[in-house]
Amino acid sequence: MDLDFRKQWDQYVKELCEKTYDGEKIIYWEVKYPFPLSNRDSGVPAFLKDMQNACRNYSKST
């Protein structure tokens, strides 16, 4: 996932960045939804981003 590109086109992203928590890299994502929805935030292991990039590169090479 290209974090900077996501911020450009997703109007609901309030914060999206890589952080370190307990020695592990995570992708922190805070979303600001319009009323009547509530804001949300989540953390995803950053290695999933690396796995996604590896799969994308593999599919291009075949």
TrEMBL record:
Where do the TM regions start and end? none
Q: What are this entry's molecular-function GO terms? A: phosphatidylcholine binding; phosphatidylcholine transporter activity
Extract the SUPFAM superfamilies matched here: Bet v1-like
The record's PANTHER family line, in alphabetical order, gives: PHOSPHATIDYLCHOLINE TRANSFER PROTEIN
Q: What is this protein called?
A: Phosphatidylcholine transfer protein
Species per Swiss-Prot/TrEMBL record = Nothoprocta perdicaria (Chilean tinamou)
